[in-house]
Design brief:
- The protein is α/β, with parallel strands linked by helices.
- Helices cover 31% and strands 19% of the residues.
- The protein contains 15 helices and 18 strands.
- The relative contact order is 0.10.
- α1 links the parallel β1 (11-14) and β2.
């Protein structure tokens, strides 16, 4: 947040949804004043019960406020409580702001166009009163509610979204996992080029200006007369070690009968089939093959090579339309309606004519015995050993939820997160604040993780055309 020109800082009035979204928000405004209206405390109190992420965040906010107010007198509360950075990040030095609560009735009145005793209108009235009491200071209402920000603008109140949870400013700048090399790449990077073979694989050591921009397990792609399809294995002071990727586009290197149909799918299979890569994220719009490739690689490494004991698949249960109510049965039976993508892809993977209907049924029973469907609601506290875990629709997870899931992985476990950040259904999450976006950015420098964005649809010409024009 920017400091106002008068040197007195700014006043930020915080809406309830900001604290429910990020309980550490009160510590994110540097040296400025943070104001919490009384109606916000009432809304927090009304939402503190429950097992949802929002309820847990509300309880964390209450603990932060309680710690700040310990042994504080009424006079100290009126003057504003100091906001030490030690509660948030002890190792980071931050300018100290002050926290204010509503301690007296508001003098501002709203126009007759905003009648009633709604919580949003009370927040607007409090912000307007602060603006009238300190006209020389920029007063800002911070809310994730677009309609509240619209009403504030109509009243002449400066309002902003909460930006501190953004991983990046523009989703188009998100790391894709692929570097499309220019045509003159070899002219600039051929000096000191070294190559060798080891265990049937071809490696290059490359030096040059572009090497500094690469990350571990990033793919390099170039066409033309001297094509290159490689993966960055290691970056050393002597240069980057690049390995030529395995070609999974032909029958002889298919994975559980699935061939890569384009370069991005081939890159994805290379990541999925490498045991040394513990964490993989795959982005792509509908029809790019995310689930099919991931499931095929999981079956090949679970049933064929025995690298993993079983496949665990889960996803966020956010409905596309109206909810259909409670579902009967066990945890797995309750999750089955959400796992249509799994069933559809299993049909593709078991469509062989060998053995007839009986053979397909036996194969399906075998696969289902090694694929477990689990709800995210029961992941907390668990540790998965030697498992191949698939998290589908991960774009609907917050950064905190992603951390809770990734830390469930034990020794020998591979975790794959799939999603399309253009299809976010969770309230208050955007392409720039999604937990999947956050994870892609944070893990790109780790030597045991990899990411690839699938850009070409392979479902059908109808699906591809719909993605382009609708």
């Amino acid at each position: 947040m920017n400091t106002s020109d008068n040197g007195q800082g700014r006043i930020f009035v915080i809406d309830t949804n900001v604290l429910m979204h990020d309980p550490t928000a009160i510590f994110r405004f540097d040296e400025h004043q943070v104001h919490i209206p009384m109606v916000v405390l009432e809304e927090l109190d009304a939402n503190k019960k429950g097992l949802s992420e929002a309820s847990r965040n509300v309880r964390q906010v209450s603990r932060f406020l309680d710690e700040l107010m310990q042994s504080a007198s009424k006079a100290e509360i009126d003057q504003g409580l100091p906001l030490p950075s030690s509660l948030l990040e002890p190792s980071e030095e931050r300018p100290q702001g002050r926290l204010f609560f509503q301690t007296r009735p508001m003098s501002a009145t709203l126009p007759e166009t905003l009648p009633g005793n709604l919580a949003d209108n009370s927040i607007l009235a409090y912000t307007l009163a602060q603006q009238q009491a300190a006209p020389e200071i920029l007063v800002t209402l911070v809310s994730k509610d677009i309609n509240l920000r619209i009403k504030a603008a109509i009243l002449g109140i400066h309002a902003e979204d909460y930006f501190n949870d953004r991983t990046l400013d523009d989703p188009d700048l998100l790391y894709t996992g692929i570097d499309d090399l220019p045509g003159d790449f070899w002219e600039q990077h051929s000096k000191g080029l070294d190559s060798w073979q080891e265990s049937g694989r071809t490696f290059y050591r490359i030096n040059g200006p572009r090497v500094a921009q690469w990350y571990p397990n990033q793919f390099l792609s170039m066409g033309g007369d001297r094509p290159l399809a490689g993966i960055v294995r290691e970056i050393t002071p002597e240069g980057a070690i690049v390995e030529l990727v395995q070609d999974h586009t032909g029958e002889h290197r298919s994975v559980w009968g699935i061939k890569a149909r384009n370069a991005e799918q081939n890159f994805a299979l290379n990541l999925l089939m490498r045991p040394e890569v513990d964490f993989v994220t795959i982005l792509g719009f509908a029809g790019t093959g995310k689930t099919l490739l991931t499931l095929a690689a999981g079956l090949a490494q679970t049933l064929d090579s025995g690298l993993y004991k079983e496949i665990i698949m889960s996803r966020v249960t956010v409905p596309l339309g109206e909810d259909i109510g409670f579902l009967p049965g066990t945890e797995e039976e309750k999750m089955e309606p959400w796992m249509g993508a799994l069933m559809d892809n299993l049909e593709v993977l078991t469509q062989s004519e060998e053995g007839g209907d009986w053979g397909r049924a036996a194969t399906n029973d075998l696969l289902r015995s090694r694929i477990k469907i689990r709800s995210m609601n029961f992941m907390r506290g668990r540790t998965f050993l030697n498992r191949y875990i698939i998290i589908d629709e991960a774009q609907n997870l917050t950064a905190k939820q992603m951390k809770a899931l990734i830390t469930r992985a034990g020794p020998g476990t591979k975790l794959i997160c799939l999603g399309n950040i253009a299809q976010i259904d969770t309230p208050y999450l955007t392409e720039t604040t999604s937990g999947l976006t956050y994870t892609v950015n944070r893990f790109r420098s780790w030597a045991y993780s990899g990411h690839v964005t699938l850009r070409r649809g392979e479902r059908s010409r109808l699906a591809d055309y719909a993605n382009e024009i609708l």
